[in-house]
Sequence to fold (228 residues):
Amino acid sequence: MPTSKRRERTALLYDEDYDERSRIAERLFFAPMRAKLAVAAGPIRGRVVDLAVSTGKGLGLYRAQDCHVVGVDLSSRALGRAVERAKDLRVSFEPIVADVMRLPIADESVDCVVCQLGFCTFEDPLAVLREVRRVCRRDARVMLVEHVLPEHRLPRTLATLAADRAQREFGCDTMRDTLGMFAAEGFVTEFDASAVGGFMHSTILRPPPRDRSRPSRSDRASTSGSAA
Ligand SMILES: C[S@@+](CC[C@H](N)C(=O)[O-])C[C@H]1O[C@@H](n2cnc3c(N)ncnc32)[C@H](O)[C@@H]1O
Fold:
């Protein structure tokens, strides 16, 4: 499927009733992992980018924190719900409709990048990871709540069986090795908690030192709608 069509389909999938459709998975799998991440994270300060923030179900992470959150997503309707959630939680929040594969954010301008249940849906997760590395300040943290293809046989079989349905209903790939991808790109794990036989992970990583030979993308940060 061409990229623009795929993006359109992803936005549509999340424009409507994502919260309702994911209610059971949220209670069983996601909420406990969000809670683990919040405890492990401790204070979160400065400028945060929340990738694929969607309706903002993960915004509780920033409750009573001294930070400003830029929430990026393809779905403007989902972002509308996130704005309401942020208000209720008193989180300083700025929504941006954009593709996380081309973040409208300046190089080395972010203290923390958060992504909860996003890497399973990105068309090119490696391109997003490279954007994460580009926008991170030197001492930034990267925080993830993700499901990955588990090593243990039974959860691995279940993830495989669920693959078609997850793809159809959420555009979500249950077969990804997201944490392996971060490790292969030089990110260092500071914290990792897993559950459901290694299917669910809450993880905190540090990006590798930036490669100065890579072209800067800060030019894009000055375009309209930018949060740079
Ligand atoms: C499973 S939801 C995750 C929602 C939220 N972070 C949470 O914790 O519940 C995935 C979100 O990724 C967004 N998404 C997928 N591909 C994207 C892309 N390339 N750029 C921006 N958002 C994207 C979808 O619109 C959707 O809102």
